[in-house]
């Protein structure tokens, strides 16, 4: 099997590449940097520029499936121009891939699996969202994700199975949101954001990589929530991280108004609450290696724990 991955050098993409190679799956990948192009037997890079709708169509040669992870980071201040970059990087990537598929008459692609985000679900402290939820959050992220998924759906109706994975809070030792949570806690400056009641539907990076390949290999279609079975509140997550690092939490909660002043509209990432179900994945036979937050953090923070930090 050979898979084409966009965003292959990012946090999620790197894990999927690693898992693919463990399973003997060859990887083609697309990059906007010619300096990042590699040409190995099982890992071959190709240049593209979605903003200009440019792509090396030979990237599709021998490819059985596409995993699309392309998109500018949302973890930067949301100025007007940057919000447009976040949007266009996702929409144009999908459209450029679709046009490449249309141009390649002899392609062998059977599956197209795209990342999406649980930010599409309305902010709520009480709802428990399944994939059939029709309401969309009235926010930049909600509208963006809806448009992103609509672009992916344009590939439907062909012989290619199309799936979308709504990704939650990704926990990894190699970066992402968790590393930003760990730093202040490690140095005795950890605190809960707001009242801490907001739900965080998280996923261990290994399980998320497994989900993408599982859906790809089985040619599954439709929407899937890329989250673990047991969401936790923000307060629970922060306390569990502190417990794993053997650190106290003695600072007061950080008010939402303060973070909005510092981060602007992007602060909504810290306070949005989506409790999301992964039942559809489980019904298709997927099994999580890390279903509970304690076990996931024990695995990810094991190196930190080995340093034997002690509270003051």
UniProtKB/TrEMBL annotation:
Stretches assigned to the NAD-dependent epimerase/dehydratase domain: 3-220
Signal peptide bounds: none
InterPro entries the UniProt entry points to: DUF1731 (IPR013549), Epimerase_deHydtase (IPR001509), NAD(P)-bd_dom_sf (IPR036291), SDR39U1 (IPR010099)
Coiled-coil portions: none
Domain annotation DUF1731: ranges: 254-300
Family, as annotated: Belongs to the NAD(P)-dependent epimerase/dehydratase family. SDR39U1 subfamily.
Protein known as: TIGR01777 family protein
Taxonomic classification: Bacteria, Pseudomonadati, Bacteroidota, Flavobacteriia, Flavobacteriales
